[in-house]
Amino acid sequence: MSTVAPPPPPKVNRIGLELAPYKGLKTTLCAGCGHNSISERIIESFFEMGVAPWRTIKLSGIGCSSKSPAYFLNMSHGFNSVHGRMPSVATGALLANRTLLALGVSGDGDTASIGIGQFMHLMRRNLSMIYIIENNGCYGLTKGQFSATADPGSKLKTGVINELPAIDTCKLAIELGATFVARSFSGDKKQLGALLRAAIGHRGTVLLDIISPCVTFNDHEGSTKSYSYMKDHDEPLHEIDFVPFFQDIEVDIEPGTTRDVTLHDGSHVRLKKLADDYDPSNRMAAMQVLEESARTGEVATGLLFLDTTRPDFLELLNLTDQPLAHLPEKQTRPPASALAEVMEDLR
Amino acid sequence: MSTVEVLSARNGGPAAAQPVVNDFSIQVATVNGSGSQTANMVLLRALFQMGIPVSAKNLFPSNIAGLPTWYTIRANKRGFIGRKKEIDVLVAMNPETAEEDVRSLDPGSAAVYDVSLGLNRLRSDLHFYPVPFDKLVTPVCPDAKLRKLVRNMIYDGILVHLLGIDAEEVRKALFKQFKKKVKAAELNWKAVQAGVEYAQQSLTKTDPFRVERMNANGNKIVIEGNAAAAIGAVFAGFTVATWYPITPSSSLCETLTDYARKLRIDPETGKATFAIVQAEDELASIGMAIGAGWAGARSMTSTAGPGISLMSEFIGLGYYGEVPTVVFNVQRVGPSTGLPTRTAQGDLLFTAYLSHGDTKHPMLFPSGPEECYTMAMQAFDLAEELQTPVFVMLDLDLGMNYWMSEPFPYPKEPLQRGKVLTAADLERMGGFARYKDVDGDGIAYRTLPGTEHPGAAYFTRGSGHNDKAGYSERPDDYVRNMDRLVRKMETAKHLVPAPVVDVNPKARIGLIALGTTHWALVESRDQLEQEHDTPTSYLRVRGFPFHEHVSDFVARHDRVYVVEQNRDGQLLSLLRLELDPALQTRFRSVRYYGGLPIDARTITDEIVQQEGL
What we know:
The complex is a heterodimer of chains A (347) and B (613). In chain A, 30% of the residues lie in helices and 20% in strands. With 347 residues, chain A is α/β, with parallel strands linked by helices. In chain A, strands 2-1-3-4-8-7-13-9 form an eight-stranded mixed beta sheet, sandwiched between helices. The longest helix of chain A has 15 residues, at 34-48. The mean pLDDT of chain A is 94. With 613 residues, chain B is of the alpha/beta class. Chain B is built from 21 helices and 23 strands. In chain B, strand 19 (509-514), helix 18 (517-532) and strand 20 (536-541) form a beta-alpha-beta unit. Chain B starts with a helix and ends with a helix. Mean pLDDT of chain B is 94; it is low at 1-9. At the A-B interface, strand 2, helix 3, helix 5, helix 11 and helix 12 of A face strand 9, helix 9, helix 11, helix 12 and strand 17 of B.
């Protein structure tokens, strides 16, 4: 009788969960859509970091990007809200329960046009959440109109040329007070994966602007948000390695070549120097890189700006440790004596 | 005393000797930003402390300083505290409006005015009392910068003498008003005394109006509706309030902040059991309130009509995604900037079906401060029980004016948190379907984010969904869900506050009103009975969707007058839409929409004309 080796145990993460709870429904987006790659990176990152899915909420506005929360993190509560106004819903949810990890997914239309007001105020508050822009420079769900992140001179399939300047959401975010600002490309598995893992460990607003080509409406010659354009113009600022807080750092850093940044959760981001040494704590340098990027058409990607010192919005509110949503009546309804005092004061 | 008698007393003749006691209105005409609010509050409180039923209406412009403002105080021994149309005692402090103010008085009225204005040349049928305000204030207040503010206290002193107000009550009210600022209180008290002395020495009283101590106010308090609603929210255990400043609702969340800081800091940890956030606009304040309600907070926002317009899309999502939150709508005249500081019941129809698609929202209609308080509490319970946005409909008159009220009762019932499943429930049940009507009342069970169970999560969306919250564009799923929402609103009919009904068995006609219209309406009923021998029945609507008692009331009267403060008869429209069409022929409409609180005489005149009395 031959012995058959037992099947290998399913791979589980540090909180004992398999990959399945981090997955979502089958995508309904176009085959090859950049957004699908981003969903995959989200699934991997949350699984690998061992984030409790029931502690996570996924929120979105309206558009192709905003459909994607259905395609990852099945075991997390989701909220597909109204166009451009996911930031306010996320803010409210986190006010109600400060222990949740909020992952917001938006698009370039949802953020830079209809949602620009809420986007800016979210950045300004530095509310602790991850805000992803799946940026394809066009409105996919309504068949390819330009969005406000389209670069000047870029061309629609119909031949229409965009003559207006692009809104750079990273520049805005840095100016307004977001504390973790990065740009990436849906096709750069390694960089995007590292940034997402780092984002999970940050306390404060994380803005990830991810160029995510629309294969149906904006992947042609003349588009600056196409796969081929990004292939030629992606200019990483550094090579990013990520060491999670639950792993020992094994590799020594060669001085002068790598910057090591510690995140709030104790994880490390290793930024390995490429052409120039880039210091992500330097706000002015970040703005300069983005100005330069807009001028040359090269897309600077990587961790543009990081500030681990500014308190996030919820810290400013002096809230109870227990989520407001779960406080018992004893703590939220003052006693009869308090009402009697209020009444006495009004006589 | 009936109005007829008052008029004869006012017009001189033998009755002129008859004093008119505790039944008059005072109007102080000033410029906004001149600090008259303190003098007016002191006057109101002094009368209140003398046990006389009083009310106050502040008619102010959309402006910070320099435009005309009128503050009207009504004293009425029978407890009628709606706005009175006629002004009996004018205090003309504003040179810009003084002449018009005097010209608009009825014969026999009294006018206190600054001597330099020479108003007594305008009319010979009024009782004029010239006062040299500047001359009197200078010795009292050596600091020229403060004089403009202190000057107003002099008219309080003049009225103390003319009306026979107890000076000690004025002093008490004044020191209460200034709280810990004793020096300021003393300075102002000197100004009151200067007014009293001048009036005693130089003015001869000729008008009939005066006060006498009563005992009508018992244990009552004086408060604005917005503050009352804020106290209600604090005792309702609100946990998240998000708002954007807009007249006339701003003071609701500002007062809420004050009370929450006093009453809702955990004594052990020093931490807040609430979050109040001033948002960037109403689009965000309602979004935050909905996000918070979704995640399990008792959330709220406060706004006025223009804010409601902006919130429309989110409210639709709240209805359809079934998310609890409470919206205080302090109504004013529209549109956008149109008379933002004047009152109206102008959002009734708009709010009832706010947003696109098929929607309907529970509304609560407080008529006074006590109901602002109790209905605020009910609204939080209802929102969570029904899992939907609930509106508390105040108006500027209620929200921003001071009202007498019985002290607020401490709640007897525990907070109602609605159908929320915990991890233990899910474990026992083996899962749940978010939008399934398990109990037949149209209300499904929900879970909160953060519930540690593999079956807890669901997806909230505006898109079509099935029982299990899965995306669906199937017609049968959509219809089933929409029909359940109808059942939910049927359930709401019995959960919103029931109407208050006063049926007079002799009455052929019924009256229906809601909110602040109540105060003018009860006085109008008295006028109809006394002056026209016409008894009436009265139903005060307190909730929407309408309770079945509303239908019964209409059915038992030949004609039903719907009295309201908007141009198009919005409450009447709602009744027509919601009640049996067979009842429609019974309806009549009385409407007032001038931006001032409705008054009894306007209602009476209209009903008398329509009835041909």
